[in-house]
Each structure stands twice: as structure tokens, then as C-alpha cells.
Amino acid sequence: MAVAACVPGDITPALLQVSHAQAPAPTDTMAAAVYFTITAGPEADTLTGITSGLARRAALHTSERANGLRRMRHVPQLAIPAGGTVRLAPGGYHVMLEQLSRRPVLGDSVVVTLTFARAGVVRVAAPVIRYEDLDP
After folding, report:
1. pTM for this one?
2. Contacts for 84 with CB less than 8 Å, ≥ 6 apart
3. CATH H superfamily, domain 5-82+95-105+113-129
4. Neighbour tally for 100: CB within 10 Å
5. Is 105 helix (H, G, I), strand (E, B) or coil?
6. What is the Cα–Cα distance from 4 to 127, expressed in whole angstroms?
7. What is the pLDDT along the chain (136 residues), one digit of tens a residue?
8. Strands 31-40 and 78-80: what pairing?
């Protein structure tokens, strides 16, 4: 099980925790996904922004089925309920990185910077793994 590496001083653990970060190895430099779990402390929070030095664009998406097809939809922000947990995983919410400056390979880490309304800025390092090895 992968655990997110947060830079010390970036987050107050009582406010929020980001864990289980992972990024399946992409096949090209067009796009990559990043998954993780966010657990709020005693107060609710909202994920309001995402950036990555690896990508020209970073955004929160969700996957949904419509007319038998799965498609992605941009989500401008994500509410994390007080004491609640939101999991970003295949088939649901995920971070989509587009127009990568290079293709990350197995063993690399993809660093994303998350901005929360209450907790502030959280930098997360997601290990690059094989898609088949993603935590279920």
C-alpha cells in the first residue's frame, strides 16, 4: 500500500490527511492519472486546486457512464466532509495530468500540489506503478 509523501510543514495533520497516493505508468506524454485518499479532520474541507510541474494542465475529473459509454467530466472542486474520507480511484474521481513534460516510468514519483480551502497547500508524491498493481 503506497502512502503519500507530504512535505513537512505543508499540512496540519489534524485538518486533513492525504494517503495511498499512486500513479499508474502512462503509455505516452499525453496524460497521466493520479489517485489517493483524502481524510478530513473534525472540520469539512474542499479541494479547490491542483497543479503539477510534470504537466501543463492538472485537473480533477470524475468518470461516469452515459448511454453505455464511460466518459470523464471536469469537477471544479471536491468537498471532503468533516471526519469523512474521499477516495480518488479508477472509475471515479481522479487527478488528470495533461500534456506531460516527460513520461514518468516505473519507480518515479509524480508530484502534485493540492490546494484546500482550510488545510492550504499539500504536496503529494505518488509512486509510479503498473496499472495492475493499483490498490483496489
Report:
1. 0.88
2. 39, 40, 44
3. PCu(A)C copper chaperone (2.60.40.1890)
4. 19
5. coil
6. 8
7. 333 445 444 445 568 999 999 999 999 999 999 999 999 999 999 999 999 999 999 999 999 888 888 899 999 999 999 999 999 999 999 999 999 999 999 999 999 999 999 999 999 999 999 999 998 7
8. unpaired
